[in-house]
Design goal:
disordered C terminus, mainly alpha, 6% strand, single chain, two-stranded antiparallel sheet, 10 strands, 11 helices, 42% helix
Length: 402
């Protein structure tokens, strides 16, 4: 663009604003396409050697309305003022607030374009339009993926390949429409303009809220990691989800009840009885996850310390109601767990020796919790005068820790 004095530059900006106002019945994208670089073209025309600017720009280029009509004609658009069928009173009243807002916005924009500082800002915004096209396509893909349930939570980028394909297609469509390569007719242009404004608001909301949402998710994840287990069995730093009990001879024990040193039931399912909180298990080839179920105890109370725990597919759980663990058909559909091994190594428990009969256990006769059983082949032969490991039957139980 040639350099002209400030007065001519101001006249050019005012004339260009009037031309855009004459095209106000068109969509904003069309107006931008038709008047892209208008100020530069007018200034260049005035700066040509063969022309001199001695009067208003109307003398050089005609009225802004006539100039706008030429732009319409060159673009193959219908002249201004051509009306379709008469608009109903209801439609007119319904659209009145929207049209008033649109006219106010266009008036404000025309005034801004007549100032000295706004043209530079507008040029910068025009240069940034490709970034807006990408943001608009991203917002469209975000809305679609959320509506169809493919992405249940807000995201910066999709989590799967299908989402990426949709986002790329949305960005391409947004860019092609913004560049004017894809047109759908005046009626659809209005629909697309409304959609574009909705996507602008959506993109603004997402950009403002996504950082906070992701910080909350990160804090929640760190809380889960840092929060030590409140209940359950921990083995080598990992939670055990099932226990398998073998007797002294190494045979599996089905239905073994496990308690701790205070007589409290030991469970690997802290959320047992709440299907939506329990841990899910996916065996190979399963169509749906499995959940552990407890064992019916006295008074139909479900016991979760009876091992090994059996499982039932999630589809068997009633919505909002408890399982009837005494139902014969339900028990037949239970899935038995796979034992780690068919038999364990036999051991010689403390309460009996190789030459002694097994005594009746008493409540106070419990194995030390911090000592592991010694295998049979490593067990020393007890002395004949060794004291019995079991307390007498009339002994009082050890006092419970407070």
């Amino acid at each position: 663009m040639s350099i002209v004095d400030d007065t001519i530059a101001q006249d050019v900006r005012t004339y260009a604003a009037q031309v855009r106002a004459a095209l106000a019945d068109l969509g904003q994208e069309q107006v931008d396409d038709l008047t892209d670089g208008l100020e530069a073209n007018l200034a260049d025309a005035l700066a040509d050697d063969g022309r001199a600017h001695r009067g208003p720009l109307v003398d050089e280029f005609g009225t802004p309305e006539a100039y706008a009509a030429e732009l319409r004609s060159a673009a193959g658009l219908a002249p201004a003022g051509q009306q379709g069928r008469a608009e109903s009173a209801f439609r007119s009243a319904l659209l009145a607030p929207w049209r008033e807002t649109r006219d106010a916005a266009r008036t404000t924009l025309a005034r801004l374009r007549g100032t000295r500082w706004f043209p530079g800002v507008e040029d910068l915004l025009v240069a940034l339009r490709p970034a807006w096209w990408v943001l608009r396509g991203w917002a469209l893909a975000h809305l679609v993926l959320q509506v169809i349930g493919a992405e249940p939570y807000p995201f910066w980028v999709p989590s799967d390949s299908g989402g990426w394909v949709l986002m790329i297609l949305a960005i391409v469509a947004s860019a092609q429409w913004g560049r004017g390569e894809w047109r759908a007719g005046p009626r659809w242009d209005r629909v697309l303009e409304v959609l574009s404004r909705v996507l602008a608001l959506t993109a603004l909301i997402l950009v403002l809220t996504l950082p906070g949402a992701h910080r909350n998710e990160l804090a929640m994840a760190e809380g889960w990691v840092d929060n030590s287990a409140q209940d359950g069995v921990i083995v080598d730093g990992e939670r055990a989800f099932n226990l398998f009990v073998y007797d002294a001879d190494g045979n599996p024990v089905e239905g073994a009840q496990v308690f701790d040193q205070l007589g409290r039931p030991v469970t690997t399912e802290p959320d047992g009885g709440s299907p939506w909180l329990q841990q899910e298990y996916w065996p190979d080839g399963a169509d749906e996850p499995l959940l552990h179920v407890g064992v019916p105890g006295p008074n139909r109370e479900t016991r979760w310390n009876v091992f090994p725990l059996h499982s039932l597919s999630r589809g068997e759980f009633p919505d909002g109601g408890p399982l009837d663990l005494t139902d014969k058909d339900l028990r037949e559909r239970l899935s038995a767990p796979t034992w780690p091994f068919a038999a364990a190594a036999p051991v010689l428990p403390w309460q009996k020796t190789a030459d002694e009969a097994k005594p009746t256990p008493t409540p106070s006769a419990t194995a030390p919790a911090d000592e592991a059983p010694v295998p049979v082949d490593e067990m020393p032969t007890p002395a004949e005068d060794a004291p019995a490991a079991d307390a007498p039957s009339d002994a009082e139980p050890a006092p419970a820790a407070p």
